[in-house]
From TrEMBL:
<keyword id="KW-0520">NAD</keyword>
<keyword id="KW-0560">Oxidoreductase</keyword>
<dbReference type="InterPro" id="IPR029479">
    <property type="entry name" value="Nitroreductase"/>
</dbReference>
<dbReference type="InterPro" id="IPR033878">
    <property type="entry name" value="NfsB-like"/>
</dbReference>
<keyword id="KW-0288">FMN</keyword>
<dbReference type="GO" id="GO:0046256">
    <property type="term" value="P:2,4,6-trinitrotoluene catabolic process"/>
</dbReference>
<dbReference type="InterPro" id="IPR050627">
    <property type="entry name" value="Nitroreductase/BluB"/>
</dbReference>
<dbReference type="InterPro" id="IPR000415">
    <property type="entry name" value="Nitroreductase-like"/>
</dbReference>
<protein>
    <submittedName>
        <fullName>Nitroreductase</fullName>
    </submittedName>
</protein>
<keyword id="KW-0285">Flavoprotein</keyword>
<dbReference type="GO" id="GO:0005829">
    <property type="term" value="C:cytosol"/>
</dbReference>
<comment type="similarity">
    <text>Belongs to the nitroreductase family.</text>
</comment>
<dbReference type="Pfam" id="PF00881">
    <property type="entry name" value="Nitroreductase"/>
</dbReference>
<dbReference type="GO" id="GO:0046857">
    <property type="term" value="F:oxidoreductase activity, acting on other nitrogenous compounds as donors, with NAD or NADP as acceptor"/>
</dbReference>
<feature type="domain" description="Nitroreductase">
    <location>
        <begin position="16"/>
        <end position="191"/>
    </location>
</feature>
<keyword id="KW-0521">NADP</keyword>
């Protein structure tokens, strides 16, 4: 495939992707295709490389039903999705420079003791002085969530490129969903919050209308 064909294939996938309201419940995503989608989440970038998010894949019907009761935006998706993913974003306390998660990530990154010390200092200054979020639990947690959305976008774009539909979902009572997950023993609310969910599967119907977007001129300003 040449360069232009590759570009066209990617644009076709972006046109194909739409917020799927209801999936064909008889169609399941093959395990290797779903692993492939997960892999693109895993390879997604994160600030400092600290990966402040995890994923829950909710395949249990009872858990899905409980979540549906408090999710106005996922009424059609929860009962029909082949795979239903809940993003977990680390709470602010978890992302402090001296916290266990950040220390673990510096090990994952394979840093020397000297590099760890330099990074800890730089990261602390970033939180305190550059972004001024270090002492604000909510802002820190939202910063984790922002990064989860990068992986979310990558997963949906990847899925579209292999003909799999998806729908991002923020239409839910956050506290209620977290309580349900805690009750089912899959969430510790001191460690994670739930910023967004995403359903994957195969569309039951074609989208009702084509994409409606602003034109690029309205969005982009080149500063030459
Ligand atoms: C962060 C986020 C949250 C969303 N939440 C919901 C939701 O709860 N339920 C839903 O049906 N669609 C949801 N959507 C889908 C948007 O409404 C949809 O992406 C937008 O209208 C553009 O349409 P398209 O994705 O089909 O191109 C969400 C989209 C994003 C990015």
């Amino acid at each position: 495939m040449n360069h232009d064909q590759t570009k066209q294939q990617i644009i076709d996938a972006f046109q194909f992707r739409h917020a799927t309201k209801s999936f064909d419940p008889t169609k399941k995503i093959p395990a290797d295709d779903f692993q492939f989608i997960l892999e693109t989440a895993r390879l997604s970038p994160s600030s400092f490389g600290y990966e402040p998010w995890n994923l829950l894949v909710i395949q249990n019907e009872a858990v899905r039903n409980d979540i549906r009761d408090v999710s106005w935006g996922a009424q059609g998706q929860l009962p029909t999705a082949s795979h239903y993913v809940i993003f977990l974003a680390r709470t602010g306390g978890q992302m402090q420079p001296d916290g266990a998660h950040v220390k673990h990530m510096m090990d994952v990154l394979g840093l020397s003791d000297e590099a760890k010390a330099g990074r800890t200092k730089r990261y602390g200054l970033f939180l305190e002085e550059d972004f001024k979020i270090g002492d604000n639990e909510k802002a820190m947690t939202d910063w984790s969530a922002k990064q989860a959305y990068i992986a979310l976008g990558n997963m949906m774009s990847t899925a579209a490129q292999i003909g799999i539909d998806s729908c991002p979902i923020e239409g839910f009572d956050q506290q209620a969903v977290e309580q349900i997950l805690e009750r089912h023993g899959v969430l510790d609310r001191s460690v994670f919050t739930v910023p967004v969910m995403v359903a994957f599967g195969y569309r039951a119907d074609e989208p009702k209308r084509s994409k409606q977007r602003r034109c690029l001129d309205e969005i982009v300003t080149f500063v030459d």
